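Support request, please re-run this one:
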Amino acid sequence: MPTPARPPFAPLLNPVRGYAWGSITAIPALTGTPPTGEPQAELWMGAHPSAPSLRDDGAGADPRPLDRLIAEDPDGELGPDTVKRFGPRLPFLFKVLAADRALSLQVHPTRAQAEAGFAAEEARGIPRDAPRRIFRDRGHKPELICALGDFEALCGFRPAPATAGLLDALAVPLLTPWATALRHRPAEEVLPAMLRHVLEDVRPGPAELATVGAALRRVAAGGGPYAAACAAYARAARDYPGDPGLVAALLLNHVRLGAGQALALDAGVPHAYLHGLGVELMANSDNVLRCGLTAKHIDVDGLLAVTSFRTGEPPVLTASPAAGLPADGSPARGGIEEIFPSPAEEFRLSRLRPTAAPTGIDLAAPQILLCTAGRARLRSAAGHTLDLRPGGSAYLRPTGEPVLLTGAGAELFRATTG
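Re-run finished. Output below.
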């Protein structure tokens, strides 16, 4: 008898990363599993070598790490086009992120900066796992995060007049001179000088930072245009007492997202996620330069070299409808897929809202589907099926054939190449 064709999809068993800033309840609530009592910060979906997903191909075999499966058959798992573009690796990492307190303030390099920095650190003989190591690979790390509910973040430098106004409202001696500087000198000149001042030259002590924290609580309680931002900064000051990166946080836009809204983080943009549950998609790199709210190494020179000091409010993104592919191959009526804009070539994020009528999902590139609400079913041309419930995910190989998706009331997010 001929061997049955292998399904083009298989469920993933995904590792959870327990960083201290993570929520104890949000990821368990999504996946329907009991909380462990410990923070569950990120659910990783992909083939990152430090924590790859396990793919369950069934047929009595043990689930195997996705990175190993890709290494054994890159063309079959990724498709020749993806291998040609990105090499024999999955170029993106997909996550569910659950923040209960602020992540570290951070910036990512451009590809050229990453290649130069990696080569320099290799030449200096710095071990790739050393705490002071910055460039752990040659890649850049654009990111996109989409909120699954109320979500708070810091993103990009606030316009200089607004930052000067906030610093004036705080009325703290440590900060007042910088408010004056922002009113009379170019922000691109003042901001890097201010970061170097607080992170390296002076490093304000616990007493000065406690004064800033008290001022933040005062402004937050008083209402007005800076109240919401100051409340967020005050929580960061409480969670990271004595951290001079608090001053860096004051310079960044405070952003609130609702479910379905997103932020795109390009190279050079300082950012931090503060609170909430979201799906995050990024290029598969570990290159991060930190600027506060962390106990990890901060390379001030490196930070200033890669940071963009442009000011302005970050755009809040929403998804736009894309044409779908019904089961009969005819043009979709309205479609079920909405795509989030992103210039990244390594990834594309979209949201799927299937119906009871089968709709085709093309398999032109490797992809991961994550179910966040309801129940959905995948069906292959050979009749294989896979049901996905909230928190469940599947890896889809690029076989070139459509897979049919149904699931009235379901919501899924789709990660694939850009």
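The two ends are 40 Å apart (CA to CA). The longest helix spans residues 206-222.
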